[in-house]
Amino acid sequence: MNRKLILCMSMIMVLCSGCHDNQQNSHSETLLNKVSHATKSYVDPSLTSEHYLHGVKKIQVEGYENQSTFFVEERTQKITQFPCMRCHNQPLKKMKNKNSQRAHWNMKLKHADSSVMSCTTCHDQKQLDKLTLLTGKQVSFNHSYQQCAQCHFQQAKDWGGGAHGKRLGGWAKPRVVMSCTACHNPHEPGFHKRWPSIISKVPGEIK
Amino acid sequence: MSVKIVFNHVRNMFSDKEEKKTPTPPKKKSCTSPNCTCSQPSSAFINLDLKSMIGSQGMKNTADDVSTGIDSIIDSYEPDKAELPEDLTTSCGSGCGCNNGSHQTQNNQKTGVHQLFDKKVDRRQALGMLAGTVGAAVMTTGCSSIVDPKIKEKAKLTWEEYFKGNFRLMTDTEKNNTVKRLERLTQLNHRFHPEIKSTQARKNVLYGYAFNISKCRGYMDCVKGCVKENNLDPETGMQYIRIFEMKKGKMSLEGADGNYHHEVPVEGNFYMGTQCFQCENPPCVPVCPVSATWKEPDGIVVVDYDWCIGCRYCEAACPYWARRFNWKAPKVNKEKVNKQQHYLGNRVRDKGVVEKCTFCIQRTREGKNPACVEACPTGARIFGNLLDPKSEIRWVLANKKVFRLKEELGTEPKFWYFMD
Description:
The complex is a heterodimer.
Chain A: H1 2-28, H2 31-40, E1 58-60, E2 71-73, H3 92-95, H4 119-122, E3 131-132, E4 138-139, H5 145-148, H6 153-161, E5 167-168, E6 176-177, H7 180-183
Parallel strand pairs in A: 2-6
Antiparallel strand pairs in A: 1-2, 3-4, 5-6
Chain B: H1 2-21, H2 24-29, H3 40-56, H4 63-76, H5 86-90, H6 112-117, H7 123-143, H8 149-162, H9 172-190, E1 195-197, E2 207-212, H10 221-229, E3 242-247, E4 269-274, E5 293-295, E6 301-303, H11 313-317, E7 323-325, E8 340-342, E9 354-356, H12 361-364, H13 371-375, E10 381-385, H14 392-399, E11 402-403, E12 415-418
Parallel strand pairs in B: 1-8, 2-12
Antiparallel strand pairs in B: 2-10, 3-4, 5-6, 7-9, 11-12
Helix pairs in contact in B: 1-7, 3-4, 7-8, 8-9
């Protein structure tokens, strides 16, 4: 009788341990511990996302030397009437008269207060192919993020690390990110209200 | 192996029975003219079997379903004029000029399935016959020279698919074979040729996800991208991602609106997206009675759609409501379908199986970002390799104040929320 009981009990033990033991083992190490352990022996998986960039010309980001290199998309190729000096071949003051054709009439500046910012806060008055920093240093349109970073330093820090902005291609190397002006119109950087692009049909309340 | 033995046994059993008990009807029904190649009654029999065996039953149901399928065949099959086209019963239709008498179906005599089943047999014999008929249907479709070769091919592939193993236990050759079969079956069933991958998890990769709740504006572009990428049926409205509109000042999903329908963002609200969090201790995995769902070495929790029995235990076990059940076969639009597929990802699913977000396994295993990350217009979604100390996701974990949903459950989601 006792033998049967022991046999029965051991059977139950074996059956239960099939699932329950495994669960306990997996709980013993937290995810972050596992990650930090695995990081020590990390070898690059040698995967590239280069071919998902679809020929985007990438330019190395400057000013983030203390971290791994990353890239932005080239901007000057995408500006429709670049270089600006094709029209702006004389000083702005000379061009600003009633007889000449008015350009950029559709530009409205909705960026900060008018006492803080004007066109020339960013655009170099003498060399219109370039942008200007607060110190007067000229910056190419490809590196316009440097200009944004003057005020938006927290966002710039997040962008450099990867918490702000959007990545092109894939998660694998190389890291190519969208520049500030790829998402934010510099003259009107806010996002607009709009309708959602799809309607949710699933029950909305969590059980 | 045991299945093959049983199958062979059934086949042998049937071939014996066929020789013994049904030698006359095919001879009586077939055309006697030497030039005539017609054989309508048998083709009608085969088509009928095929429709019910392959079409509606799909041949991947349980044994019970197959037997009910057989019952329905028996019920619906009437080899008289009502079932067969008129010209078939009166003349052979091939212009051979043969005597009609030889073509006429003899109603008095039982034919086909009826002949096999309308007998008083004991339980053991009946079961044997039933199994024999199943084998017969398959063997007929595989061996007959009358049936459309495409139907034959479909039947053969479906049959082979039915007896494949769990994806985790397959060898590389078996994986390649099943992928080829599935590609061909999709071509035959849905008329488009997908490229189904079976890419393995890479070493030194563990996927992680971060969601910026101060950036999300509820535009739902991610949901749209997900639906397109994963071939979700717009008719059923299945969506892996849900975006909750939440009142500021409260961090609880209770009272959050997941069905908002107005312009976004709304003042005083913030938006929080949920999907499958690919937990490190996924509660949905141990509850599966057939091991059809598991966690891959790169951290993605996947479902083998061909192994899932649709019990929905996993759906009940998930505390994040991340799993979805196919109440009907998802509609596939061959023009809009994403042909880049993965065995464990966005390939064509069947009715009655569970599916879920796989971090777009078909993309991420190739180094691409998931469709939701790519579609997000605000950059609220960050994806990367948790093991890479230089990855963006690791930067977020190290530099931002992050939290996870229902962290106290110990599920260890690999999906973090953070704020600017």
